[in-house]
Amino acid sequence: MIIRNEDIEDQEAVREINLNAFPTDVEATLVEKLRSSMDTISLVAVHEDKVVGHILFSPLRIENDEESFEALILAPIAVLPEYQKQGIGSKLVENGIVECRNQGHSIIVLVGHPEYYPRFGFISAEQNGIKHPFEVPEDVFMVYELIPDALHKVNGILKYSEPFEEFF
Ligand SMILES: CC(C)(COP(=O)(O)OP(=O)(O)OC[C@H]1O[C@@H](n2cnc3c(N)ncnc32)[C@H](O)[C@@H]1OP(=O)(O)O)[C@@H](O)C(=O)NCCC(=O)NCCS
């Protein structure tokens, strides 16, 4: 299993993965809109020359009355159904975190399953001063510090990018 940056030639396979992993084409389309409208970090998992998993990180902001902070959002992540539960999703998250850190980012947020993401070090966003723009259960809204104390000075409300606004 290799985790590497997505190439242009992988885009069709990535669309197929998202179409297969999610009930509708919403996530597949979201990936395309995000990828074409901003700098993203997009990684694929490759097994025997076949692209079987994908993870995307894209920029958004955390804002309060005085300040605006940059962050990344992890979404979506998808593994082909027949390859799930073999650790591929975990490798994508772990390698994604390293890549985000290497590219100089400081915070990752996500809305996801509360039993999955804490194992990678994600913690409650609400309890760390970040509010979600609309109501979500507290335990699904999480944040990850890529550099020590990155969260210390950050507080505010999440401001999603336009492709996400359309998604909601
Ligand atoms: C989420 C996903 C990427 C995980 O990939 P994976 O390769 O199966 O992940 P791993 O093998 O590393 O980890 C499997 C673990 O994740 C858990 N898991 C997977 N999807 C989950 C979900 N939607 N909710 C809760 N737990 C989930 C499994 O139960 C398993 O738990 P365990 O380790 O305690 O047994 C994959 O299941 C998937 O593509 N799901 C459909 C798309 C999706 O829901 N994406 C997340 C929202 S953006």
User: How much strand content do the residues show?
Assistant: 25-35%
Total separate domains: 1
| Cα-based radius of gyration, to the nearest Å | 15 Å
Q: Give the helices and strands as they follow along the chain.
A: EHHEEEHEEEEEH
Q: Mean pLDDT, as a whole number?
A: 97
Ligand types: coenzyme A
For the sheet with most strands, the description reads: 9 strands, mixed
The fourth-level CATH homologous superfamily is: Gcn5-related N-acetyltransferase (GNAT)
β-strand number: 9
- Write down the CATH topology: Aminopeptidase
Describe what this molecule looks like in 3D.
The protein is of the alpha+beta class and 168 residues long. The protein has a single domain, classed as Aminopeptidase. Helix content is 26%, strand content 33%. The chain has four helices and nine strands. Strands 1, 2, 3, 4, 5, 6, 7, 8 and 9 form a nine-stranded mixed beta sheet that branches. The longest helix has 15 residues. The model has no long low-confidence stretch (mean pLDDT 97). The structure holds coenzyme A. The site of coenzyme A has 18 residues, from β4 and α3.
Write the layout of secondary structure elements.
Blueprint: E1 2-5, H1 11-21, H2 26-37, E2 41-47, E3 50-63, E4 68-79, H3 88-102, E5 107-111, E6 123-124, E7 130-131, E8 141-145, E9 156-159, H4 162-167
Helix pairs in contact: 1-2
The structure holds coenzyme A.
